[in-house]
Each structure stands twice: as C-alpha cells, then as structure tokens.
Amino acid sequence: MSFKYEVVIKEHHLDSYGHVNNANYMSLYEEARWEAITSGGYGYKKVQQTGFGPVVLGAEIKFLKELKLRETITITVEMLSAEGKIFKIKQQMLKADQEVASEAIFTAGFFDLKNRKLVLPTEEWLKAIELTK
C-alpha cells in the first residue's frame, strides 16, 4: 500500500519553539494511517463492526527538518511487510519541495478487541491494505 495525505500545519501542532512539537508528529502520522485504511475500506466503522483492527506495537521516528506554521506537507503511508500477526509501516512527512522532514517505521499488529490479543489478519484486512489482491 502506498498512500499520500496532505495536511496544513496549524497552531495547535506547534510548541514554544515555533515548530511542530514531537508528540504531534505521532498524531499526524496516526491521522494519515487512519485516512489510508479508511480509503482501503477498513476504517473505524469497520473496526467497530468486526471487532478487529490495527494496533501500534512500536515506533521509531526521525526528525530531520523543522515543520513550521501553515506549511502544507504530504504524509506518505507504505506497507513494508506482513509476517504472521505483525506488519511494518513506513511513513514520511514531505515538505512542499519533497524534502523529507520526518520518517517513521511503525511495528503494528492485528488486534481482537473482544479477546484483547493479537490475531492473524483477516483476508478482508489484507485486501484493505493491499497486501493481497
């Protein structure tokens, strides 16, 4: 899966230094992931209907260039791998000139909301994230 999500940096994203606060990078990345899976047909509504959905298990993030107020950025979402219950997602925040401002690798799993444990992903989920055809 490769997905692009455009967003404008707003006042609430900033810290006292006038650039995006480190914690807000995580929120912006999550927003882009939800847009990606929703466009793939497996958004919040589907998670609530089925009782199964994605859960983040870990994150490695790099801050490479500042993001400032009213910049328009593009956040990319790319599925790197899926092995058993675990999958890897790469995301980048690109400035208008396509310079990488931030890069993150997320380790995630497919979660059973009722039994509160990781499970093998369903075929429907894999199709939604385009790991199978």
UniProtKB/TrEMBL annotation:
Domain of life: Bacteria
Database matches in SUPFAM superfamilies: Thioesterase/thiol ester dehydrase-isomerase
One Gene Ontology MF term: fatty acyl-CoA hydrolase activity
InterPro entries assigned: 4-hydroxybenzoyl-CoA_TE (IPR050563), HotDog_dom_sf (IPR029069)
Pfam families (UniProt xref): 4HBT_2
Transmembrane segments: none
Identification of the protein by name: Thioesterase
